Amino acid sequence: MPIALYRIDDRLIHGQVVVGWGQPLELRFIVLVDDEVASSEWEQELYRMGVPPEMSVLFYTVDDAAAHLAELQKRPEPGIVLVGDIGTMGRLVAQADGRIRAVNVGGVHHSPGRVQRLRFVFLTPPEEQGLRDIAAQGVDVSAQDVPSARPVPLGELLTSTTGA
Hints:
9 strands, 25% strand, transferase, single chain, PTS_IIB_sorbose-sp_sf, alpha/beta, globular, two-stranded antiparallel sheet, 36% helix, phosphotransferase system, Fructose Permease, transport, 6 helices, kinase
């Protein structure tokens, strides 16, 4: 299980990722895919400070992540691919040649123009379309903040207005 999870989370590396998912999945590496962070040494250092020493963090642009995806999937230890927004995941899926089969929407938080779909997911209409576009490429898209929660399928996510 080299890549255990492909996650969209606008907070990137934080406790829910490192501990909440990291411990049950026994993650040994995080691939943070972000074009800006990949070119910023000081931001990379800040994110490295948030992970335990036994977990490594790799920083890639979308293009580099797509180019290295096959080798990342062959690593013997489990890892996670983490992006901060739906557009970045859409670009990665489009370049992955079908290698990404499932995407987890783990946290897209409130900002102006977004509508609450779940307690931890707020979306604009273009972001909703972005998720539909990812699914149209044969990817199973669901929302789940922590491993103990029920995964919410995309269709249910996009029609939810309860914020539950």
